[in-house]
Amino acid sequence: MQALVESGHLADLRWPDFTDYRAHVKDFYEPVGYGLGWLRAAQGAPQSGPQATDQAMAVITLLESADNKGLHAEDYDGPRWPERLARLRQTNPPPTEDDLARFDLALTVSLMRYISDLHIGKVNPRHFNFGLNIENKKYKLQELIRQKIIDSPNPGDVLAQVEPQFAGYQRTVKALQAYLALAKQGDGEPIAIPAAPIHPGEAYAQSPQLAARLALLGDLPANTSAASAGGDTPAIYQGVLVDAVKHFQRRHGLDPNGVFDLRTAHEIDVPLARRVLQLQMALERWRWIPPEFQRPPIVVNVPEFQLRAFNAQQQVELTMRVVVGRAYQHQTPVFTENMRYLIFRPYWNVPISIQRAEMVPKLRKNPGYLEKENLEMVDHEGHVIGSGSVSDEQLKDLAAGRIQIRQKPGPNNSLGLVKFLFPNQYDVYLHGTPAQELFAKTRRDFSHGCIRLEDPAKLAAWVLSDKPEWTPDRIKAAMNGTASTQVNLDKPIPVLILYSTAVVQANGEVDFFDDIYGHDSELEKVLAKGYPYPG
After folding, report:
1. Which residues contact 61 (CB under 8 A, 6 or more apart)?
2. Model pTM?
3. 207, 308, 381, 404: least CB-packed within 10 angstroms?
């Protein structure tokens, strides 16, 4: 056993290299002289060798059903345990000491991987440069197993507490199990991509097939047959079938106009196995989230273009649309920080990158650009240098970043009338915007990285709800006044910027969104490489 542990390699495993867990495994076996942990002499059967304990059998059952948690049973040798258990029961020839050691070590490594994967995810989010820290969540695996599992009357109860306790996580697990069952049934008959958009009332020969697919996905009521969906003329695209398409479009971030167009057809034809993978990756990301916040968080899900604010019961108290960073070059980062203050009627301090790339060229073409856009030049102490014509020398200073441009407060300010600050390394914050027309679009990645709010006044009221002096009228007055006003929060509010292309709503419905930044693709590639994962 000691030699196997020291090697960090066990050929019996699906993923033989366990060097990333070697220190944990050594700390598990060394204090007991590298004795077996999961095998005991069989009671009343002196001729047979050591057998798996009840706890070992309970753990194996959980490893074999790991798919239900968004993991893969094969990663924990799920298909291999029946043969190993049969080998333990053999009497001619009986299992060797090497067989026993390999069985025991395989179960220890598999369980350690399972616990870690279930608790903090397989891949460290830092690998993707995400601002999420899982270090404080990590277990001392050898202590957890020795103290709470190896002699537990019910190891399943212990391992249930290892998982994230968020309601959204539990809903995602349940939804995954439903989609796994659907995927086993198959995707059904493919839906032909229409040559031109099909509008309500128009002929569409595949209406019955479309109805069958939407019934499978849950968008068409379960008591509606494929034939009855089209009424007296099933080949006509109409009635409840149109309503089902609208429902499907809403769940997939599309314009719910009921028109069966190319984009909608492509989304309907996405294989169920792909939806399963999206849910699995959503669960991986749930495991990266800090387990406890100081108070209910504000959460922005980038691919969904949606903000939610939660109460102490994990219920959504506020929701609104947001605009996030452009997919090309200006992606909104994934991280968590604490909101500490907000500013009514803020200045917009133009980032140097935007100043150089966008504003200096405009100033060269139009010397009156500053005045037109309500901009002014300031030094690094915030002293105003000018807001009119720009000299050649000032242009050089602007290009070099020796002086800066900022936009004065007002309704046309790029930050709107309020911004919410949660200081972070990315210089990202929440703010209003005068460009309200963008919120009508289904895909809303238009910013330079910060997050624009559909209704900043409503969020201000939620953020300041523990300050009774900040009534809605006072908030409105501050937003429409003449001075910039900073309000510090008595208690910081966690802000979580996450990225998930699968979201399970409180009613159990599952929404899927485009992988606009390619983060799903990156995670999929890393997961496909197997253990050891970047940690």
Report:
1. none
2. 0.92
3. 381
